[in-house]
Write a structure and sequence with these properties.
The protein is of the alpha+beta class. It has 21 helices and 19 strands. The strands form four sheets. It has a seven-stranded antiparallel β-sheet. A hairpin with a 7-residue loop joins strand 14 and strand 15.
């Protein structure tokens, strides 16, 4: 067996950054970094008008519901972490809920197998949306500008905006594929007069503009109790869906206490359950703190092996314990404790891969369904140092593919994030443990991991990512790059990514971005490897030693941008 020192000499990665590692778009007056340039500009304009980071995040989120329909939404849900300039932090939970008529086995066929088509698209797939209530709660608690001021930029965009090539191509694929069977969706997003969308075309979303105007005028009640609620409930009733006016009226967003941890002199502020991402992130950092990770390296097989083993153990704890804290007791303090990390670290062989099945023998039911990758993340700072990390989603790309008739917005397909077959946890990756089984009014478990990092009271990082269960591992890699290996956020965001989620017992790596010697060494240690195209899109803000904030759009998103309130709002380039 090769010793770690020998492995280290043999397995240096040959990764070369995609571009010269500039630190990002600089600003001392605030930044908005997100997946869509027009939406970032909307948030930056709110900053320029005297809004704070929460105002800008809310404006950006509503704008993304127009310009990034794959994941930006008012028909989905998500999470927001806010750190004020004085260091006080809070979390807002607006995760979707199961309808009141939901049952634990509603997605099982007559043969007892999961009918995955029912959660992929259609009218049974959506959970009760949380985004509008959640954005309103955050704004009411911490926003500065009037509510209407932060919603109206989205109304303007819905009245007409220019399509990028990436969005035009994406819409064409959806309209010719999974959206085609839903007439209201085709009516909302199809090109007037027929034909394919092209870059430079102007898209007008008239129904969505009216919906957003109603929210601007009437607040979240317009969505949950007013005429929009009537439209949602009527469309559900006409098509066999479960969401009712009672479901919408009962929905509440929650302010929660963030999960907090420490790592190598840094304070970690991240999302609590029903996100599993924050607990997993702190647990992984605690495990890796038990090792001399700097000596093993960020880009060597010995260092990557330790990260994989930390991921494996954190995701096993996720499967065992995590769910909606309003329905199940989640041992957050124990899972994020240094003592728990020491026990887990002691079980890691630094030279050999563990067996996921053996580690989780107590819950594996035979010798898991994936969350979809179409989430999106927004990072914001304002000139005072207030920071927001916002991650929200429709679940799959374009959610359930269903546009509410007459309202113009897409509904999520989040019901697939519940454990859909009670008791069946298997090597394919299906999880059947009790904490995340379907129950009426329950929030489904998520992997979203909006995170803020500080040190000695000063802001360092605002980050997060889409990417289903890869999310906490993407965030982990960025935090390690900056805090452990002295990288700028640009270097950390550009670096290659990998992922392990306990089951299936497989490491996925970004194809073509790791050296073959390193991959061979990981295989020799017992890891099964598989390629993926890209992992995540971590739109990040890093605060340098001189106090300048740098916006770092992830090159993995075609239209990503960092916008500043004092620029012309067209010059801040994306990360490509």
């Amino acid at each position: 067996m090769m010793r770690p020192a020998l492995l280290a000499t043999l397995t240096l990665l040959v990764w070369v950054p995609r571009q010269a590692p500039d630190p990002g778009v600089p600003s001392r007056d605030g930044l908005v970094v997100c997946v869509s340039g027009p939406a970032c500009d909307a948030g930056a304009a709110v900053l320029a008008g005297g809004g704070n980071a929460v105002d800008a995040a809310v404006a950006t989120a509503f704008a993304l519901a127009v310009t990034y329909p794959s994941a930006g939404n008012i028909g989905g849900g998500g999470f927001m972490i806010v750190r004020q300039a004085n260091g006080r932090a809070t979390a807002f939970d607006f995760r979707e809920k199961a309808p009141l008529r939901a049952t634990p086995t509603m997605f099982l066929g007559a043969d007892g197998e999961i009918d995955r088509g029912l959660t992929a698209s259609g009218y049974l797939a959506p959970g009760v949306p949380g985004t509008v209530r959640g954005l309103e709660l955050a704004h009411r608690k911490l926003g500065r500008r009037p509510w209407k001021d932060v919603v109206m930029p989205a109304v303007g965009l819905a009245g007409g905006f220019t399509l990028s090539k990436a969005l035009a191509d994406d819409l064409n694929e959806q309209l010719q594929g999974p959206m085609a069977r839903f007439p209201a969706s085709v009516a909302a997003y199809g090109k007037p007069g027929g034909g394919a969308w092209s870059a430079g075309d102007r898209m007008v979303l008239a129904d969505l503009a009216r919906t957003l105007q109603a929210i601007a005028d009437g607040g979240a009640d317009a969505f949950y109790r007013g005429p929009l609620a009537d439209l949602i409930a009527a469309d559900m009733a006409a098509n066999g869906g479960l969401i009712s006016k009672a479901d919408l009226a009962a929905y509440r967003a929650k302010e929660r206490r963030p999960v907090r941890g420490t790592y190598r002199g840094h304070d970690i502020i991240t999302m609590p359950p029903p996100s599993g991402g924050g607990v997993a992130l702190v647990e992984m950092l605690n495990i890796l703190e038990q090792f001399d990770l700097p000596s093993r390296g960020f880009l060597t097989a010995p260092g990557l092996h330790l990260q994989i083993e930390a991921m494996r153990r954190a995701f096993l704890d996720r499967a065992r314990h995590l769910g909606d804290p309003d329905f199940t007791a989640v041992p957050v303090s124990r899972l994020t404790s240094k003592a728990h990390a020491r026990r887990l670290a002691a079980s890691i062989d630094p030279e050999r891969a563990s067996s996921s099945v053996e580690l989780g023998r107590d819950i594996v039911s035979m010798p898991m369904s994936q969350e979809a990758a179409e989430t999106t993340h927004v990072s914001v700072v304002d000139r005072t140092g207030m920071a927001v990390a916002l991650t929200y989603t429709l679940e799959g790309g374009y959610g359930s593919k269903v546009v509410v008739k007459g309202a113009g917005f897409l509904l999520n397909n989040e019901m697939g994030d519940f454990n859909r077959r009670p008791g069946d946890t298997n090597e394919r990756g299906d999880i059947g443990t009790r904490p995340n089984l379907i129950a009426p009014g329950k929030r489904m478990l998520s992997s979203m991991t909006p995170t803020i990092v500080s040190s000695n009271g000063k802001l360092v990082l605002v980050t997060g990512s889409p990417g289903d269960r890869t999310i906490p591992n993407t965030v982990l890699r960025i935090i390690l790059g900056v805090t452990t290996f002295g990288m700028t956020a640009r270097e950390a965001v550009d670096a290659p990514r990998l992922h392990h989620q306990w089951l299936p017992d497989r490491v996925t790596v970004e194809a073509g971005r790791f050296g073959e010697d390193a991959l061979a060494a990981l295989r020799a240690m017992g890891h099964e490897l598989a390629d993926r195209h890209r992992q995540g899109a971590a739109h990040t803000i890093w605060v340098g030693p001189d106090g300048t904030a740098y916006g770092v759009p992830d090159w993995r998103s075609d239209d990503a941008k960092a916008s500043t309130p004092v620029s012309d709002l067209t010059s801040a380039s994306g990360g490509r």
